[in-house]
Amino acid sequence: MPVSSSVTEGKVSIRLSKSFTFNDHADFRKAALSHPPGTKFEIDFADIENIDSASIGMLLLLRTSAGGEMADISLVNCKPNILKLFKMCQFGDLFRLG
To answer: What is the pTM of this model?
Structure first.
């Protein structure tokens, strides 16, 4: 399964593996969008080399469902190419990047 999640101390940790593309949207939706607004999220990109535009949309949808401007979402363990893309998209204004 390319998406796994766990809940610890009120924070949902989602680990992505291999890819993060449109093909992963059902698993990501199941792992991320079933939590109420105000839930803290940490999305782990350690194993991700590439993402597509659908994954950008999934992250924005997560932000909306997690409370919009009040959302607490960290995108962690990003490889340099992924971090560069997130910075170009100005995701540093929407998420915590690392």
So the answer is: 0.91
